[in-house]
């Protein structure tokens, strides 16, 4: 998902990064490139317009920053606008003060509602809730059975209507008409909520019927279920692969049923991602969750900021930059930039100073988690201990000023003294010196190459 959009945007920014300043022509060209990239990704036209309009205006008004060059500033703006069209802040599930909380799932057939019911149930159960799935999709002959299977897999109870009432050869049912008279989904939903109240389930997830295309009956039925069960959340479930059609569908459900949020499914696919980028803006309601596979655990809370970073392939570097801007004062920034550009080697004294500043920014683990590429290294990151940071600091503090500026001169006896002084083993001192040597080497290479990581300012 988003791969091609990511590549296009990254290319656009790469061209900008070489520039010392941005002219209006540069901004216009960039905005044009972004517009094409979004349209090719199937993002809805009104959303594209709103997005590029804001980016253009802000890029021309260029918010001046000491720490970012013009290219990076555009990246920052695009990132913030992406977060905004994705819905802004992370939206948590609304739980009712008086349980049971009623969550209704609505959307087209095949969008992934039934699968989602299982995932949501599993997720809630994992958090100590007692969820109940209610099978109010009486349209598709095997929908009830499917929900039962899903429920069993997730270890979550299912409330299903009496089979005899639901299935049978009824022309009206098969033609999709007259569902109210024959196994009424609205009654099932109401009974399901009553059952939950009786039996102490605190969250009810109602799976409703979908059609292949939006139709009036479907909307009315979903609307009635919503009203009759007094649903706390009505989640519009949308297949992220459906492209431009997403807009009309989303609007139809939003107007016809009234929704409180959306859930994106099939984000694991290789679709271009237009629905994902359009739905929050088109419906005016946030995206709460993302479904990323067929397994019951392939499900996550949707964070607009993380999704934006993923699209821009930058980890959460912008938060890092902002924190760095806060932690390093301007004279420190200038000194670091000077040092970086000069031929002088990076010393342990610089390192200690930066460690102090980084400490002000938060935990090392948290910060590393924001680096690009770190998502694939979750396990290693989880194993990381922030105390390690303190040990490194103790070692550097045990060095003399001469040693800090001349790491290569730290021989065996000096190493032993440093280890003793900081209460670590000599091999830890060796490791630190070795890694520091590598870092120095990397810095020298970066200077020669004229750039570091994409989107990063000259920050070691
Ligand atoms: P419903 O008609 O809205 O209830 O949709 P279903 O839950 O039956 O899902 C339709 C199909 O999409 C099924 O084959 C699911 O296994 C599949 N599906 C649902 N969610 C996802 C997802 O996040 N990723 C993938 N790859 N497939 C999904």
What does this 3D model show about the protein?
The chain is of the alpha/beta class and 460 residues long. The chain has three domains: 83 residues, Up-down Bundle (Four Helix Bundle (Hemerythrin (Met), subunit A)), CATH 1.20.120; 202 residues, Rossmann fold, CATH 3.40.50.300; 133 residues, Signal recognition particle, SRP54 subunit, M-domain (434 Repressor (Amino-terminal Domain), Orthogonal Bundle). The chain is 56% helix and 9% strand. An eight-stranded mixed sheet has the order 3-2-4-1-5-6-7-8, sandwiched between helices. Helix 3 runs antiparallel to helix 4. The radius of gyration is 28 Å and the shape is globular. The two termini are 31 Å apart. Guanosine-5'-diphosphate binds next to helix 5.
Can you lay out the helices and strands and say which pair or pack?
Layout: H1 3-17, H2 24-40, H3 45-60, H4 70-85, E1 101-106, H5 113-126, E2 131-136, H6 143-154, E3 157-159, H7 163-166, H8 171-174, H9 185-199, E4 203-208, H10 216-229, E5 233-239, H11 245-256, E6 261-265, H12 274-283, E7 287-291, E8 299-301, H13 304-311, H14 317-327, H15 330-341, H16 348-361, H17 364-368, H18 378-383, H19 387-397, H20 401-405, H21 412-422, H22 426-449
Parallel strand pairs: 1-4, 1-5, 2-3, 2-4, 5-6, 6-7
Antiparallel strand pairs: 7-8
Helix pairs in contact: 1-2, 1-4, 2-3, 3-4, 4-13, 5-6, 9-10, 11-12, 14-16, 19-21, 21-22
Guanosine-5'-diphosphate (GDP) binds next to helix 5.
């Amino acid at each position: 998902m988003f791969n091609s959009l990511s590549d296009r945007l990254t290319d656009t920014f790469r061209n900008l990064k070489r520039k010392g300043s941005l002219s209006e022509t540069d901004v216009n060209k960039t905005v044009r490139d972004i517009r094409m990239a979004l349209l090719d990704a199937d993002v809805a036209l009104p959303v594209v317009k709103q997005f590029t309009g804001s980016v253009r205006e802000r890029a021309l008004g260029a918010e001046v920053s000491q720490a970012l060059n013009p290219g990076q500033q555009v990246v920052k703006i695009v990132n913030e606008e992406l977060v905004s069209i994705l819905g802004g802040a992370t939206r948590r599930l609304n739980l009712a003060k008086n349980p049971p909380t009623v969550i209704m799932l609505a959307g087209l057939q095949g969008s992934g509602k039934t699968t989602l019911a299982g995932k949501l149930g599993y997720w809630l159960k994992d958090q100590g809730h007692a969820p109940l799935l209610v099978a109010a999709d009486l349209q598709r002959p095997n929908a009830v059975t499917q929900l039962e299977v899903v429920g069993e897999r997730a270890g979550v109870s299912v409330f299903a209507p009496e089979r005899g009432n639901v299935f049978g050869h009824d022309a009206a049912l098969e033609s999709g008409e007259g569902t109210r008279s024959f196994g009424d989904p609205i009654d099932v939903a109401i009974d399901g909520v009553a059952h939950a109240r009786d039996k102490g389930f605190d969250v009810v997830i109602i799976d409703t019927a979908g059609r292949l295309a939006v139709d009036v009956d479907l909307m009315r039925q979903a609307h009635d279920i919503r009203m009759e069960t007094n649903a706390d959340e009505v989640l519009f479930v949308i297949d992220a692969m459906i492209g431009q059609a997403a807009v009309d569908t989303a609007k139809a459900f939003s107007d016809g049923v009234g929704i409180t949020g959306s859930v994106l499914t099939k984000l694991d696919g290789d679709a271009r991602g237009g629905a994902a980028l359009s739905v929050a803006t088109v419906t005016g309601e946030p995206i709460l969750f993302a479904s990323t596979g067929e397994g019951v655990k392939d499900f996550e809370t949707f964070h607009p900021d993380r999704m934006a970073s993923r699209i821009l392939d930058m980890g959460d570097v912008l938060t890092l930059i902002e924190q760095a801007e806060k932690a390093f004062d301007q004279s420190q920034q200038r000194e670091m930039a000077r040092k970086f550009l000069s031929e002088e080697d990076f010393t342990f004294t610089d390192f200690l100073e930066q460690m102090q500043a980084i400490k002000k920014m938060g935990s090392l683990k948290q910060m590393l988690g924001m680096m690009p590429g770190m998502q694939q290294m979750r396990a290693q990151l989880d194993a990381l201990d922030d105390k390690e940071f303190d040990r490194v600091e103790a070692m550097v503090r045990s060095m003399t000023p001469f040693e800090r500026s001349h790491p290569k001169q730290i021989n065996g006896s000096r190493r032993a003294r440093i280890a003793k002084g900081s209460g670590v083993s000599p091999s830890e001192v060796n490791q630190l010196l070795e890694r520091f040597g590598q870092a120095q080497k990397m810095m020298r290479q970066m200077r020669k190459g004229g750039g570091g990581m994409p989107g990063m300012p000259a920050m070691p």
